[in-house]
Amino acid sequence: MFKPFKLLSFIALLSFCSCSSVYVPNVPNTPMLSSQGELSGGAHISLRGNANFNGAYAVSNHIGVLLGGEYMNSERRRKDFNTKMVEIGGGYFTTFGPDQNRILEIYAGVGTGKTDRSFRNYDSGELISSEVQVTDFSKTFVQVNYSSKKNKNFHLFGNNYPLNYGTALRVSHLSMDNFFINGVVTPKEDNIYLEPIFFTRMRLSDAVQLQYTTSSNIGLKNRKYMTAGNSIFSVGAVINVGGLKKKK
Questions:
Q1: Does residue 208 belong to any structural domain of this protein?
Q2: Is 121 helix (H, G, I), strand (E, B) or coil?
Q3: Based on the structure, what is the number of domains in the chain?
């Protein structure tokens, strides 16, 4: 006989499933390109174990191409979460200001990804219910980046480390290509996300910088599975080779 406690636990499990999203945003590509031939590459990781890579190349003095992706695999007793995504894009960048140390970048791109989630509920150590969600999704995005290479320093252990600051606004549209729950075809969902991003870079050398990124994630549509709420808090390293050099 199915105990009332088990029924309540099962309902709680479904409620938990519905309030978390199958979409985990990747760290946006903010390469701070400044001139033709510049190459940017970065790797970032969040406290949740979401690993990201970004790359960009300036094919001319104002046109850049992007490549990025993410991978996350979290396995716990009650919940497994695996997601992966890759995206490409391109757009326009320019420098301005008295010392050409401010950068405006406008990019657009597409991506594809997959998420697998498993939820399990236990009673007295026994598994009483489980749910497996699998979805493939497509992504399009438009992004505007503004950053500054102003001469501000962070003092640490008697050394000065120049700091760069930046912000970006990404608008992403995610659409499920298919969606299965326990192997059963389930109605697909989509959503439009507003993602304001802020980042700070500490320059260790002419090419290498440490970066801290934070963002929020706002969904414009009311969805059950492809909802909002997953934000970005990550640390990483960025390498820029080439580009305009800072004036002494």
A1: yes
A2: strand
A3: 1
